[in-house]
Amino acid sequence: MINMDNKMGKEIINNYRKYFNEINSGELYEAENTLKSIVKKEEAGEGYLNARRYLGMLYLEMENFDKAISELSMIVKIKEATKKKKFRNLAKECPEGFDKEEEERGHLAWVYHDLGMAYLGKADCEMAEKYLLKAYDISKDKKNIFRNDLGWLYYKWNKPEEAIEKFKASVNQGDNSGFPHFYLGLAEIKAGRLVSAKEWLNEAISIFDTNAHDPYDKSKRIFYELMKASALNNLGRIEMDNGEYRKSKRLFLEGLAICERQECQEYIKGLSPRRKTKESITIAALHNNLGLLHYKQGFLDEAEKEYIAALKFEELPETYNNLAVVYHEKGVKEKAESYLKNALRLDSQTEVARANLNRLVGGGANWWDWWFKPGTSGSSLHKGEWPRRIVGSFLVFALLVMVCSMMCTSFSGSEISVLGISLLSFGEHGVNTVQEDIYSYKVGDNSTSRVRETTSTKTTTTTTAKNGSNLIDKITIAALLFFFLVHPQIKIFSFGAAKFEMETASISGSPMCCAGTPSS
Predict the structure, then answer these.
(1) Distance CA 373, CA 412 (A)
(2) 395/337 Cα distance (integer angstroms)
């Protein structure tokens, strides 16, 4: 503990209290300046690391991931270089919602944790895993929190089985906060096990309901109500996928009713940018999925209204994609293309939007450009476009060979091998060979001349018929090849019941783990 008789020490403690008050009031930029002043004073004095750690945490909450990584990495370098610089024990000064760490390794565990979450914010999953594992390894009493965040990393990394393993371990270790149950529901959805996902989400909702009845802590109550809204959104997704549209609509509307309550809106306004983004995504997801439900029922105008409402809360690639689908069905191609490009601007890895844009642009583009020029990904071919280019090249080559074969058949009676099919030659020598073979059985007979003449006539007739048949076959194959080459210029086409259709997308509530979150 700091010597309170020390004038500098008292001033630093007062600055920390000022910082905590600014954080609780949502004055983030004032809190940043306060922390910077503490860093300077501590570096000039005993060199404690708390202020730099809180500065990294503050940048993480402000979603300035580069600055967060810079500050937190500096602490890691300092700790690796020397054991002298340590963290203060500020447990008595910390208000509720802050981790009241008293031990050195507890502070360091949070440094590793926040560094991992900052890398996750930059979508660098390998670095995020490295530091989250370090946090988990050295932590003594925050195992469930760090394990849950590792699970969330694996979920975002598209590794649902690893995520499920982490969340189940937290449940087995007595985490009754409802978070691992909720995340298990999301991971089971991603793994395609919807029945299990429903069970976990319903259990999470039950726990959230219990925690939301705390009469003495309004912030805690609202927090868990908003978590329930996110769970309702994902439960509604499952019911919608199962064709239970009435149940799905009821769940979406119940979630929106929670989020739209005045006290919930006021609570959201006071959150840090990162936590505010989380709640905005939940509301946008509810509107998006309700719009998707209307779309599935054939109500395009209602779907459009919900998608537009979703974008007022948060820009999501799925919502832009779904708006594009609506405008495509309404015949407004320009708007559809614009919204798909917006989806890819937000997330270039949104495959459903990329596939839809290729369909849309391909549906009206020059067929040669569609097969052989780069798409929306930039000046070079996207890796997913190489197979299309190869197929296009094969079709062009096959069509040219087929046309040459048709010309040879028409003018000289010969044929060319194409598409792996070997065709025989029916030229003059071939006919004579057949005639001589037949004649050899009739030598010495007075009717030889008549047999040769008849055989020749039959052979010529057979050859002509065969050439005609082959020519028709080749024309048919050439027509099919030509159709496949130019089909991108056909806006909508069908083979039987299969028709050109752009895909829609639903989304999860996308929860984010953050410092100060109520936990078990």
Answers:
(1) 38
(2) 28
Specify the range with the lowest mean pLDDT, choosing from 34-38, 94-98, 281-285, 404-408: 94-98
End-to-end CA distance of the chain: 28
Q: Partners of 380 in the beta sheet? A: none
pTM above 0.85, yes or no: no
Q: Angle CA(187)–CA(191)–CA(194) in degrees, nearest 5?
A: 85
Cβ neighbours of 421 (radius 10 Å): 9
Q: Which two tokens stand for residue 117?
A: 């979450």
Q: How far is CA 517 from the centre of its chain?
A: 25
Nearest to 204 by CA among 229, 221, 239: 229
pLDDT digits 0-9 by tens, 192-250: 999 999 999 999 999 999 988 877 788 889 999 999 999 999 999 999 999 999 999 99
Query: What is residue 412's predicted lDDT score, i.e. its pLDDT?
Result: 59
> pLDDT per residue over 214-225, tens digit each?
777 888 899 999
3-state secondary structure of 402: helix
Residue pair 100/124 in contact (Cβ under 8 Å)? The answer is no
Question: Rounded CA gap, 375 and 362, in Å?
Answer: 9
Tokens of 13: 């403690």
pLDDT of residue 12: 80
Exposed/middle/buried for residue 4 (C-beta within 10 Å: 0-12, 13-18, 19+)? exposed
Helix (H) or strand (E) segment spanning residue 495? strand 494-495
Burial of residue 203 (number of CB atoms within 10 Å: 0-12, 13-18, 19+)? middle
How far apart CA 468 and CA 387 sit, in angstroms, is 36
Q: Answer for the pair 503, 209: CB distance below 8 angstroms, yes or no.
A: no
pLDDT in tens, 140-168: 878 899 999 999 999 999 999 999 999 99
Beta bridge partners of 498: 495
Average pLDDT in the chain: 78
Do 41 and 285 contact (CB within 8 A), yes or no?
no
Phi, psi values for residue 139, rounded to 5°: -70, 145
Query: For residue 236, with 0-12 CB atoms within 10 Å meaning exposed, 13-18 middle and 19 or more buried, which class applies?
Result: buried
